Amino acid sequence: MNIGWLIYNSFDAEKNKAYIQWMLDEAKRANIKLEFLLRDRLTIGLINHSLTVLYEGKQIPSPEFAIIRAIDPLFTRQLEMLGIRTYNSSIVSEICNNKAKTHQFLSPLGIPMADTVFYHGEMLDGMAAPFSYPFIVKEVHGRGGKSVYMINSEADIEKIKHLRGSWIIQKPAVLGKDIRVFVIGKKILAAVLRESDTDFKSNFTLGGRASLYTLSKEETDLAEKIIHAFDFGMVGIDFVFHEDGSLLLNEIEDVVGSRTLSALTDLNIVREYLSYIKETI
User: Fold this and answer.
1) What are the backbone dihedrals phi and psi of residue 110, each rounded to the nearest 5 degrees, phi first?
2) Is the pLDDT of residue 197 over 80?
3) Of 49, 64, 78, 210, which is least packed with CB atoms within 10 Å of its CB?
4) How far apart (Å, rounded) are the C-alpha atoms in residues 160 and 156?
5) What is the pTM of this model?
6) What CA–CA distance (Å, rounded) separates 253 from 180?
7) What is the pLDDT of residues 56-114, one digit of tens each?
8) Which CATH number fits the domain 116-170, given the four candidates 1.10.150, 3.30.1490, 3.40.50, 3.30.870?
């Protein structure tokens, strides 16, 4: 029997009780002993000259693998250094949960992306945006369409100048329409088209509508080029549309949800994921 951890932070665990139970049920079916742990109660560090992981302040036996549904590259790297296989890896966690790093990392591969500027500090303080209006401002660690702002004029900049942190500034692509490609390992499972008639963001959780989408040969080749640049466990690769109809990479979701896929198909993505994990460990 394979032994693993399923790790969430407390806030996300509360919102994802059904998904967590789904994972635990499918693990039992797959003859995997999967223990659910809260990241908030795990402590990592160096004790007696050795890397250590404690749960609620106590030593805990190491598993073969960990499914990490919390964004914490340092924590993930600690597990890897202790010989625990992680899904997703610390590299995926570090790169894909930072929009600037994602664009920087994939640029040498010739992946088509919107013109993007990386920015840190008080929003646009003393700096002129390199694009004419409108443009989009995104917090680099934002997820689910949050911390994304359409800037149509100088007045809009004034509204967000209180924000701090790291941001990207982008020329907008076609608004209110994107594609999410669901990936496990090196395999594309499905693609979903998300659209909104009322918002420039098309996220399903923000009220957008979704439908299954068939990738063309060119679109599949583009997705696979990104896939082969990483060692993915399970992710969602999000594309937006250029004015000419071609795809531009938008972002990669490390801790990807599957509400749209579950609503549109009978594909058991958790079963697929656990099967992939059994094969790779």
Assistant:
1) 75, 25
2) no
3) 49
4) 7
5) 0.92
6) 9
7) 999 999 999 999 999 999 999 999 999 999 999 999 999 999 999 999 999 999 999 99
8) 3.30.1490
4 within 8 A of 35, measured Cβ to Cβ: yes
- Sign of the dihedral through C-alpha 241, 242, 247, 252: negative
What DSSP state is assigned to residue 39? G
For 140, phi then psi, to 5°, come to: -65, -25
* pLDDT value of position 205: 52
In order of 54, 98, 129, 154, the CA distances from 250 in angstroms are 37, 12, 20, 25
State whether CATH 3.30.470.20 applies to domain 98-111+174-280. yes
**Angle between the 269-280 and 17-29 helix axes, to the nearest 10 degrees?**
50
Give me 178's structure tokens.
Answer: 């994107």
Residue found by looking up tokens 């460990």 in the block: 281
43 beta partners: 54
Amino acid identity for residue 173 in this structure: A
